[in-house]
Specification:
Layout: E1 3-12, H1 18-28, E2 32-38, E3 41-48, H2 50-62, E4 69-78, E5 86-88, H3 109-115, H4 159-166, E6 187-190, H5 200-212, E7 217-220, E8 225-230, H6 234-244, E9 252-254, H7 258-264, E10 265-266, H8 269-275, E11 282-287, E12 295-298, E13 307-310, E14 330-334, H9 339-348, E15 352-356, H10 368-372, E16 380-384, E17 396-400, E18 403-408, E19 416-419, E20 428-430, E21 440-443, E22 446-449, H11 459-475, E23 482-486, H12 492-503, E24 508-512, H13 514-526, E25 532-537, E26 551-556, E27 561-567, E28 570-571, H14 577-580, H15 582-594, H16 604-607, H17 611-623, E29 629-630, H18 633-643, H19 655-663, E30 675-677, E31 680-682, H20 684-690, H21 695-714, E32 722-725, H22 732-741, E33 745-747, H23 758-769
Parallel strand pairs: 2-5, 7-16, 9-14, 11-17, 20-23, 23-24, 25-32, 27-31, 32-33
Antiparallel strand pairs: 1-3, 1-4, 2-3, 6-16, 7-8, 8-15, 9-15, 10-11, 11-14, 12-13, 17-18, 19-22, 20-21, 21-22, 25-26, 26-27, 28-29, 30-31
Helix pairs in contact: 5-9, 13-23, 15-18, 18-19, 21-22
């Protein structure tokens, strides 16, 4: 018997060549019917027998296009429909949109071959693409994903491109960004004031020549602009540091191919898989540099490369400028993911510094107006005329114990849809946190997490944050019924949440404790609903008692939590200033232990202050003036870094933890004693011992002690799964120690352990917390 079947498929099935794939499968089985994009995914109607239907579905599931994935496939018999053939029909859109937005993907192997094939009509065309690769999220305005709803609508296809676009059997069928030299996106080269007269065929050679001369270029990519320079040119790298006011934070390096990557870093199989994946993230790798004892490095303040002695035992590979990642043996490397990047790197044959083009505390530049704010940083601008609708930074990933951990989820990985283990009874907008911010929307059993937005430290960043909310609302025609946000009253995300609640008259709102949200994010990632033992270590978060938490041990599920232990509170001298100055946290701990006598100690922390500063800070500590209480493990890292003489004032976030990571020695065993009374962990015994030990011993035992703390507090709850999250678990040394120590442990991996995962936790927490009021 022949029936009419309706097949509804949800997942990543739009903008990935899924409809022509279905067309080819239908042709293979001689099936008549239709396929279309809908608001919820892809809808297929076919007339066939049950036996052929089963074969049809089995073939679909086992032979998906490279970028497609299926979350659900439902089949039902419907009223008889008459078809003469199989057709791809016009997209439909109903009132409820649940289709997933496809992310931006790197150039595929087929397009790369054509790019360098002199007989191909797209030879050396910087925007070559097909259904299996290229831009998506960054150009999309609305769903369903059709060319008219992207920034490619302004480019009229030539006859040849139109023929490919209309042919269901062509690799470029309905590839929305396609074009060619005749009809597609074009480049332009500018100095700081005007466009230069350079032909399209000569432009790449001109760009390469400028880079070889030591110039800094701003280059428009997929989701924003990069600032780039020759990574082997010390003066060029230093010029970029000076102009960008970035004295020592490591730069990411883009390399031509895996051969060049291996010249710079040690790369295992899992890391190579990530580097060459369709997402092409920045991967944090161990440099090929060797240990040489106390190492000589270049003084970043002198262009003549005068030398100073660094306490770190590391030598950089000579092919990279030593000021790429001062005092750090890890290097962030990524492969070119656009044909434009490929063309430049193949012609240059050198690695490039490629860092996001933005002013401090502002989002990545995405248009000509915003990049002009940086014309004092770059010497030349390589622009193109395709609008970036949705900004999207580069993703960052590391591998620990063979497990990939996403630290920044953006290009290639986002927006991401997380399938929840339960269904939401309200449409939820989650506002995330304040640092490394993301937002999320939740409906049915999905949470859609935005790409990395960044820190909400300025007017422009808050406006960019609002734009990301509006983007998700527009694309999904989403009107929230509940807004979930962080408990911290001074977070910009909390302020925006309250404004939106009033502005849109949102009927429900819910504040969720920061560290509970960290644990919830991993539970959502892993589909856990029963009780877990959660460990949340980070820099800061508003606690239920009004103090700044960050060293928290919780027993929780997705409806409640109990704080069963925490680090003992210490004072942050100067409040927010203590976040930038580890010495202030260390000094506070010394005052806790020694009182005013701490001033006479012979210690790097004490030596970093003037006598008058020490007196002032003692008074601040004694009277609790501008000295909020904190239980933060992130701040404890800062304190230890100061006490052992590594970092007194940070030039970038996370510097103290990265420097301690460099000096960890896994041959040093043992840990420092600590006390636990009334669910409070007393760290003072550890601090006194750190003052007495050699630097490398002190740092290594400090790491070991943190793992011992987790074990001791967890022991009474070992029947529960162990869940760890929070920004401190971005530290590869600590995370590896935890993974090695505990068998039944869940970590933030596909969702960032830092505050980039908070919005997902807020979505998951709203399932039951909203029901319970």
């Amino acid at each position: 018997m022949i029936y009419t079947y309706k097949i509804s498929i949800k997942g990543t099935v739009q903008g990935v060549g899924f409809r022509p794939f279905i067309y080819s499968v239908a042709t293979l089985y001689d099936i008549v019917g239709s396929v279309s994009n809908g608001a919820n995914g892809v809808e297929i109607y076919i007339n066939t027998t049950k036996d052929i239907l089963d074969k049809f579905i089995d073939y679909i599931k086992t032979n998906l296009p490279p970028l497609a994935s299926i979350d659900s496939l439902d089949v039902e018999v419907v009223s008889n429909k008459k078809f003469d053939n199989f057709r791809i029909i016009k997209s439909t859109k109903d009132s409820t949109i649940t289709a997933l937005i496809p992310p931006d993907i790197s150039i595929c192997q087929e397009c790369q071959k054509e790019l360098f094939d002199s007989s191909n009509r797209r030879y050396l065309y910087p925007f070559i693409t097909c259904t299996n690769c290229g831009v998506r999220y960054s150009i999309i305005e609305d769903l369903p994903y059709d060319r008219a709803k992207t920034s490619m609508k302004f480019f009229k296809m030539c006859e040849k491109c139109q023929a490919e676009y209309n042919n269901p059997l062509d690799r470029r069928y309905h590839a929305q960004p396609i074009g060619c030299w005749e009809c597609g996106v074009s480049l332009s080269l500018w100095d700081r004031s005007e466009e230069l007269r350079v032909t399209s065929k000569e432009l790449i050679d001109k760009v390469v020549a400028l880079l070889k001369q030591g110039n800094i270029l701003a280059i428009k990519g997929v989701g924003g602009y990069h600032l780039v320079c020759d990574a082997t040119n010390y003066e060029a790298v230093q010029k970029l540091r000076d102009r960008k006011h970035r004295p020592s934070k490591p730069f990411a390096v883009m390399v031509r191919d895996m051969d060049m990557a291996r010249e710079l870093a040690k790369i295992n199989k899992k890391e190579e898989e990530l580097l060459t994946s369709k997402e092409r993230p920045i991967v944090l790798l161990q440099s090929v540099g060797v240990s040489v004892g106390s190492q000589v490095v270049h003084n970043s303040s002198q262009s003549d490369k005068s030398q100073i002695t660094s306490p770190l035992a590391f030598k950089f590979d000579t092919s990279l400028a030593p000021n790429i990642a001062p005092d750090i043996s890890k290097i962030g490397i990524f492969l070119p993911y656009t044909p434009l990047h490929l063309l430049i790197l193949h012609a240059l044959d050198k690695p490039l510094v490629a860092t996001s083009a933005n002013i401090t505390d502002e989002p990545i530049a995405t248009n000509f107006e915003s990049i002009q704010k940086l014309n004092g940083v770059y010497d030349y601008l390589l622009d193109h005329n395709r609008e970036i609708v949705n900004g999207c930074d580069d993703s960052v990933v590391m591998v620990v114990s063979n497990k990939p951990v996403v630290l920044r989820r953006a290009r290639g990985y986002a927006p991401v849809a997380v399938k929840l283990p339960c269904k939401l009874d309200k449409k939820v907008l989650a506002m995330g946190a304040n640092q490394k911010s993301t937002v999320a929307i939740g409906f049915e059993n999905y949470a859609i997490l935005s790409p990395h937005i960044g820190d909400l430290d300025g007017i422009s960043s808050v406006e960019y944050y609002r734009q990301n909310i509006q983007t998700l609302q527009r694309i999904y025609d989403f009107k929230p019924q509940l807004i979930a946000y962080d408990k911290h009253p001074n977070y910009e995300s909390t302020k925006v949440a309250k404004e939106l609640i009033d502005e849109y008259d949102i009927p429900y709102s819910l504040s969720i404790q920061h560290h509970y949200a960290h644990i919830l994010s991993v539970m959502a990632q892993e589909g856990l609903q029963s009780k877990v033992f959660g460990v949340a270590f980070d820099g800061t978060g508003y606690g239920d008692d009004g103090n700044l938490w960050g060293g928290e041990f919780m027993v929780c599920d997705n409806s409640s939590y109990e704080r069963v232990a925490h680090l003992g509170y210490f004072k942050l001298l100067g409040g927010a200033k203590a976040i930038k100055e580890p010495r202030r946290v260390a000094l506070s701990l010394l005052f806790d232990i020694y009182g005013k006598d701490a001033i006479s100690l012979d210690n790097p922390t004490i030596k970093s202050f003037t006598p008058q500063e020490l007196k002032t800070h003692y008074l601040m500590w004694q009277k609790g003036l501008n000295a909020p209480l904190s239980s933060s493990v992130g701040r404890l890292f800062d304190a230890v870094s100061s006490l052992v003489g590594e970092v007194q004032v940070m030039s970038y976030e996370g510097e103290s933890g990265m420097r301690l990571e460099e000096l960890y020695d896994d041959t040093i065993e043992g840990y420092y004693e600590f006390d636990i009374q009334d669910n409070t962990i007393d760290i003072h015994p550890m601090i006194t011992k750190i003052l007495q030990d050699d630097k490398r011993v002190a740092i290594s035992k400090f790491f070991n002690t943190l793992v011992e703390m987790i074990d001791r507090v967890y022991t009474p709850y070992k029947e529960l799964p162990l869940v760890v999250s929070g920004g401190v678990f971005q530290n590869a040394v600590l995370l590896k120690l935890v993974l090695d120590r505990f068998e039944n442990v869940y970590i933030a991996s596909s969702i960032p352990p830092n505050d980039g995962g908070i919005a997902l936790g807020q979505i998951f927490g709203s399932v039951y917390l909203s029901k319970s009021g």
